[in-house]
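Dissemination and training. As part of the outreach component of the grant, students in the summer workshop were shown how a complex can be specified as a set of sequence lines and then modelled as a single object. The example used during the hands-on session is reproduced here so that future cohorts can follow it. Participants entered these lines:
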Amino acid sequence: EAQVTQNPRYLITVTGKKLTVTCSQNMNHEYMSWYRQDPGLGLRQIYYSMNVEVTDKGDVPEGYKVSRKEKRNFPLILESPSPNQTSLYFCASSFSKTVYYEQYFGPGTRLTVT
Amino acid sequence: TQLLEQSPQFLSIQEGENLTVYCNSSSVFSSLQWYRQEPGEGPVLLVTVVTGGEVKKLKRLTFQFGDARKDSSLHITAAQPGDTGLYLCAGYSTKAAGNKLTFGGGTRVLVKP
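and obtained this result:
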């Protein structure tokens, strides 16, 4: 089954404790991205990757890091989480970053930073 | 900054009624997508519209892209409880660096039986 998986689905942590949210897709997609979703703000892009070893900032990259060492994996790293990073996070992938291709989203990771 | 504004933010209707969700911007988009998101899940693509004035139908859902490619609407006829969810519009702009996809704030639709 074609899918994007994220782990963990739920995470409660404390300020300053490094964490990683994993994302994996099995569709051989080149393009992957991370979004955060906050009430009334829709989805805002954090980082994206056009291919292996190619990453770039989205709209809200501060406080986040990513890496793309393999085509299928695109982990999101919070080196020193803060309460304002409490949010619902989605990983997405698509065949290519053009206007015609559908983005497939993972199930989401709900992060709470206290 | 390109903005996509959706209205209304929340819509509660009875089963069988019709509803329309609007997605507006002052910017021109190369294409526009509509997604539906259910609780505990990620958004799922419903449709992509590319040409100004384009109308696409998906069963009881009708999507329209404005002539100037700055706005779009989603109309649901005879809504059913299964249509309940968060509807998101997202516009692609090829003028922005790297083909940017911008999401609207979403419209939460509740269809009561």
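The mean pLDDT of chain B is 91. Students were then asked to discuss how this feature might be tested experimentally.
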